[in-house]
Amino acid sequence: MSTITRDDVNVDVVVGPNTKSDIEPIATAPRRRTTRALHALHVGSGWVIVLIFALPLYIALAGAFKTNRQTLDSPLSLPIPFTFDNIARAVTRPDNLVVVGLMNSIVLTACTILLIIPLASALAFYIIERRPRTRAVLLAIFALGLMVPGQVGIIPVFKLLQFIHLDHTYPGLLLFFLGSGFLSFAVFLYAGFLRTVPREIIEAARVDGASDLRIWWSIMLPVVRPVTATVAIFVGLWVWNDFLNPLLLIGPLQGQTITTVSVSSRHPQAAPMPADQAAPQPLSTASPRSDRG
Fold this sequence. Notes:
Layout: E1 2-6, E2 9-13, H1 19-63, H2 68-73, H3 85-91, H4 97-128, H5 132-147, H6 154-163, H7 170-179, H8 181-194, H9 199-207, H10 212-223, H11 225-241, H12 244-249, H13 261-264, H14 288-292
Antiparallel strand pairs: 1-2
């Protein structure tokens, strides 16, 4: 026999094989309602956050297919009537500023990703093979690349690029991307993931006569595919969206990426230059009139 208290009334119930299953829904009903309410709150909060982040993207995407008057009058409305005039004007510019800037961004982003992934994974494999004290020192050195903001070292980097005659060039910008915090970020991700790889796999490969290069290429790179995808996504977004470094290291009069097209378009003498062409002249050789333009 058991006692159930409900609404200040004590009821003695004889609990049998079937009575217990009848009592459980009464006890768990408030808990289920609370769980459903929390679930609905989480789902609603998630949708609100998604809408907040998606709203600027929608405004930019819808504005690309509207006239300027439609965008100013109702930025949240649908692009009705639908027009491609904005895209046509951008693509058919006489100076090809947008097209060349887009191609430059694609080339720089692809080259940065393709160089950082093997370099960072090889460095991480080398670091985890060292002794614990040496490993800690090396990781601390790479941690400086994450702790020090890139804007702090932009002037020393620019002077270094001038010294090796790579200032105002796309190869110099690519070299900056390889030596910036992007590499440190990738090394930390790879090193953290490679620590979970069993040592027996590496030792077995060495017993079979595989060199460190063979182990890295045939065993480690296939294992770290999830980290490689993460590095490619984050580094690609950072390089593609970078505005300050291309603006300072290349200059609006020497070339542009897709993010610096708006600055380059304000200079009438800014000639677009693809990333695979020769290095342009330094900004110091530009005429004072063009600098004031």
